[in-house]
Each structure stands twice: as C-alpha cells, then as structure tokens.
Amino acid sequence: MGQLLGAGAIPDRSKGLCRVLVCLSALFALGCGGDIGPPRGTEGLDDLQPVTGSVLFEGKPTPGAIVLFVPSVKPESFRYRVAGIVDEDGNFEMQTTVPEGTRPGVVPGEYMVTVSWAEPIDPNDKDSDLRELLPEKYTLALSSGLRVEIGEGANELEPFELTP
User: Fold this and answer.
1) 80 assigned to some structural domain
2) Structural domain of residue 122, as residue ranges?
3) For strand 51-57 and strand 155-156, is the pairing parallel, antiparallel, or unpaired?
4) First vs last Cα of the chain: how many Å apart?
5) In DSSP terms, which residues pair with 53 in a beta bridge?
6) Which segments in the chain show pLDDT lower than 70?
7) pLDDT at position 74, please?
C-alpha cells in the first residue's frame, strides 16, 4: 500500500518553491480581483449614455421585441452591437455589446432604429422557425423610418408607436 506523505517527506528545497508559488498565486488572485479599467477591446465605450424608451404596436406593448440602433454615419463600419429587449410593459433600456461583454448605455450620436418582434411558429418545438409579428419595414434600418439622436446625460426616448 502507498503511504501518506507528511510535510517532513517534502525536501527543503521543494518547500521553498511551494511557498513562492503559493505567494505568487495569492498576489495574482488579489491583482485580478480589483478594477483595473475597462476590458480590452472596449476603447471608445467609456462615454456611454443611459437610453430608455418603449415600443408599442397598434397601441399595445411588444414584450420580447428587440430594438437595435445602427449608426447613421457609416453603418457598415460599426464595431459593436447596441440593443435593448422590450419588457412586458413595452419598455426597454439600451446596452452596448462588444466581444468582451455588455455595458449599459449608448455612445452619443445619430442612429437608425430597427425593431424585430418574433414568436416561434411551433411553440412546442425549441428549434422552431420564427414568425415576425411586425411589418418587415421595421426590421430594416433603411426602411424603418425610426431615427434617434443620443446626447450627453439620460436619454428618455419618445415611444416608438408602430403601425401595420
């Protein structure tokens, strides 16, 4: 049978190395826990402004709808996603997402807006295709007719009142 090794079974030189590794691990853990600034890849996202709004279709809330902001200037060069999900009351709060994570708010500027509100064709099938509940024009930035300008400070948008 094997034997249980006690502290006396570890050579003195290895004990020193173990202590150094434990100390370095502790320092590393402490250093990683603090706020060391924004994650890499989030340059330009330090000026995000809060944005809230609501979406109604034929006067009723659109729970689960997705609101997207696309920059009006050079939309093809957009490096991050600006989106909000509509709650049960029809309200949303915009967030900006980059590969490293999501942050609340939007960079000031002018945006085209799209809204998509879909449901599964077969609610009992998790892989079911989706059926769009809004007219197609609202799902496309160039045809939605929805525009916003985000400024410094809190931005409470006028409701998006969508029609058939």
Assistant:
1) yes
2) 51-162
3) parallel
4) 79
5) 92
6) 1-44, 75, 77
7) 76
| Host H or E run for residue 155 | strand 155-156
- Distance in angstroms (rounded) separating the CA atoms of residues 105 and 67: 13
Q: How far apart are CA 140 and CA 33, in angstroms?
A: 42
Cα 159–48–118 angle (5° rounding)? 45
Instruction: Report the CATH number that the domain containing residue 121 is assigned in CATH.
Output: 2.60.40.10
Q: Is residue 37 part of a domain?
A: no
Report how far residue 152's alpha carbon sits from residue 135's, in angstroms, rounded to the nearest whole number.
32
Residue 157's SS3 state is coil
Q: What would you measure as the largest C-alpha separation in the chain, in angstroms?
A: 81
26 found inside a domain: no
115 within some domain: yes
Overall number of domains in the chain: 1
Give the number of other CB atoms < 10 A from CB of residue 44.
12
Contact yes or no for 106/154 (Cβ under 8 A): no
CA distance 71 to 75: 5
- Could you give the CA distance from residue 55 to residue 28 in angstroms, rounded to a whole number? 46
Which residues lie closer than 8 Å to 28 by C-beta, 6 or more apart? none
Note if the pTM is more than 0.85.
no
